[in-house]
Amino acid sequence: QVQLVESGGGLVQPGGSLRLSCAASGFSLGSYSIGWFRQAPGKEREGVACINTHGASTVYADSVKGRFTISRDNAKDTVYLQMNSLKSEDTAVYYCARGNQYTCSLYGLAALKYDNWGQGTQVTVSS
Fold first, then answer.
1. How far is CA 39 from the centre of its chain?
2. What count of other Cβ atoms lies within 10 Å of the Cβ of residue 101?
3. What's the pLDDT tens digit per position in 48-90?
4. How far is CA 3 from CA 22, 28, 78, 123, in A?
5. How far apart are CA 111 and CA 105, in angstroms?
């Protein structure tokens, strides 16, 4: 069964950091692009970052450039999202999703090009 499981969310103060993990099961993550998306209450889903199969190509939303870093460890079938300098507007449920090997390079953060979404992890940035 193909599955993605996010973890690492929580409550953090503004300016703090969190690292999210997206663990794959039922398939070898190394053959796929992975994207991170988020959705805040009352807002549309937003693309955050994506990474291609070997990590050589990444795409970031303008709102997180310079603060978030996406990386992957294919040996562990896991993709990470390191989030630094967090702001209140980063509060959302964060999801990871699987694309094919070309999705991130060709389509970036186009959510419709990704399938097999995880269940999400809540990130709350508040003092």
1. 12
2. 14
3. 999 999 888 999 999 999 999 999 999 999 999 999 999 999 9
4. 10, 11, 12, 21
5. 13
* Tokens encoding 45: 């889903």
Task: Give CA–CA dist 122/117, Å, rounded.
Answer: 15
State how beta strands 10-12 and 121-125 pair: parallel
The Cα–Cα gap between 5 and 51 comes to: 17
Q: How far apart are CA 116 and CA 114, in angstroms?
A: 7
Assigned token pair, 16: 């703090």
**Which amino acid, one-letter code, is at 112?**
L
- Report how far residue 46's alpha carbon sits from residue 2's, in angstroms, rounded to the nearest whole number: 23
